[in-house]
């Protein structure tokens, strides 16, 4: 960073020198920018980094929430299956008073959940 005096106004001008890599020539380069240009470039870089960070945080949060939801659904399905099994066991002992007539109960998760919910042995229980 250097300063130079503006001959017309007498004000000092700050020059920021940036060392970088020239994409076109493939060589190291030194570019002089005014402080205003350097700050503008930094502002663009900061905005880009903030956007990338926010997007990454949102993706991570969605992944965690989705995983937790999947586990919760697995637990509920497993619990429902256990309840149905216990009710079936109880119903085998119930008599209706009519010969060879009984009460049956069956429940299974809908097929539409098959792609969403993973194997109960691996996740959620």
Number of strands: 3
Strand content: 15-25%
- Order of strands side by side in the largest beta sheet? 1-2-3
Provide the gyration radius in Å: 34 Å
Mean pLDDT: 76
Distance between the termini: 61 Å
- List the helices and strands in order: EEEH
Shape: rod-shaped
Note down, in words, how this protein is organized.
There is one protein chain. This protein is α+β, with helices and mostly antiparallel strands. Helix content is about 45%, strand content about 15%. It has one helix and three strands. It has one helix at about 35-90, and strands at about 1-5, 10-20, 30-35. It has a three-stranded antiparallel β-sheet with strand order 1-2-3. The radius of gyration is 34 Å and the shape is rod-shaped. The two termini are about 60 Å apart.
Give the gist of this structure.
This protein has 1 helix and 3 strands, in the order E-E-E-H.
Strand and helix map with partners:
Layout: E1 2-5, E2 12-21, E3 28-34, H1 35-91
Antiparallel strand pairs: 1-2, 2-3
Main features:
3-stranded antiparallel beta sheet; 1 helix; rod-shaped; disordered C terminus
